[in-house]
């Protein structure tokens, strides 16, 4: 572990530029790891700051621990012992954060701190962070890690002419529905955008639709198959998307047949 930390510090040192001191446009940003109830998680911290009359003024920021993004709404930072020590307290949309850091390397107006902290959820983290001037850096340049969507679909697999083809979609957090249970009563995702395209055997679109998953993560739709429809294998393409989640698409097939050639019971 000690060797790994030495390598990390060396890598950070290589990317610190030499710049002159200015009162505005500072960022405190770094990466490390966090210890949560789910084990060790990749963690990062970023905060935009201004220096004014020996005070550090917080602008915006966030803390990422694993798949959880915490938008920081307020932060107080202080430097002491000739900037060799750093302390911060912060609040986010759902927790409190306290941390302290020690200076391990400085280059001009830039400094690297080893910051250790904890959250009000009893999680802890350890981060190597650079305090540097960068007027061009904005908080949106580092997009938070998007979460996965578990997309499950039930459909009518054989459809006669003049009959409805029906499909039901549910979206879940895969970590909360590890068995991919369509009927699960927990872990469902509401408000996920759903787009569907139904095509016939020669690739012509016969219906498109778009909406959002509703209560308990459901989205339902159907289409009546006319009596002059082509017979054969049709395709349903489903896409689920959201700004906080990775887009996922799946393809399903069903068979359309005339009434006169429908399946007969096996004696």
* Form type: elongated
Largest sheet: 8 strands, antiparallel, barrel
Query: Quaternary status of these chains?
Result: single chain
Low-confidence stretches: 1-23, 137-142
Nearest-integer average pLDDT: 84
**SSE topology string:** HEEEEEEEEEEEEEEEE
Cα separation of the termini: 70 Å
Helix percent reads under 10%
Category by helix and strand content = mainly beta
How many whole angstroms does the radius of gyration measure? 27 Å
**Strand order across the biggest sheet?**
1-2-3-4-5-6-7-8
> Percent of residues in beta strands?
over 45%
Total DSSP helices: 1
User: How many β-strand stretches?
Assistant: 16
Question: Would you mind describing this structure in some detail?
Answer:
This protein has one helix spanning 2-14, and strands at 26-36, 39-52, 55-65, 68-80, 85-92, 96-107, 110-119, 124-133, 150-155, 158-160, 164-172, 193-199, 205-212, 218-224, 232-242, 245-257. With 267 residues, it is mostly beta strands. The chain has an 8-stranded antiparallel barrel. The protein is elongated and about 90 Å long. The relative contact order is 0.13. Mean pLDDT is 84; it is low at 1-23 and 137-142.
Chart the SSEs and their pairings:
Blueprint: H1 2-14, E1 26-36, E2 39-52, E3 55-65, E4 68-80, E5 85-92, E6 96-107, E7 110-119, E8 124-133, E9 150-155, E10 158-160, E11 164-172, E12 193-199, E13 205-212, E14 218-224, E15 232-242, E16 245-257
């Amino acid at each position: 572990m000690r060797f790994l930390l030495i390598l990390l510090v060396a890598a950070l040192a290589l990317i610190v530029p030499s710049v002159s001191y200015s009162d505005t446009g500072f960022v405190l940003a770094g990466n490390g790891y966090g210890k949560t109830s789910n084990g060790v998680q990749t963690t990062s911290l970023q905060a935009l700051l201004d220096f004014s009359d020996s005070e550090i003024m917080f602008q915006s920021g966030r803390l990422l621990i694993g798949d959880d993004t915490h938008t920081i709404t307020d932060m107080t930072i202080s430097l002491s012992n000739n900037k060799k020590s750093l302390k911060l307290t912060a609040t986010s949309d759902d927790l409190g954060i306290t941390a302290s850091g020690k200076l391990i390397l400085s280059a001009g107006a830039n400094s690297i701190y080893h910051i250790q902290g904890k959250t009000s959820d009893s999680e802890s983290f350890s981060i190597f962070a650079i305090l540097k001037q960068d007027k061009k850096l904005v908080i949106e340049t580092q997009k938070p890690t998007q979460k996965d969507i578990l997309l499950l679909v039930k459909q009518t697999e054989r459809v006669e002419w003049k009959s409805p083809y029906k499909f039901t979609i549910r979206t879940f957090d895969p970590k909360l529905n590890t068995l991919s249970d369509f009927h699960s009563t927990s872990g469902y995702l509401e408000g996920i955008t759903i787009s569907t395209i139904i095509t016939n055997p020669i690739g012509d679109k016969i219906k498109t639709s778009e909406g959002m998953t509703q209560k308990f993560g459901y989205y339902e739709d159907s289409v009546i198959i006319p009596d002059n429809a082509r017979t054969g294998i049709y395709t349903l393409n489903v896409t689920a998307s959201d700004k906080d989640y990775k887009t996922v698409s799946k393809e399903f097939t069903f068979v359309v047949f005339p009434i006169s050639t429908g399946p007969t019971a096996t004696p």
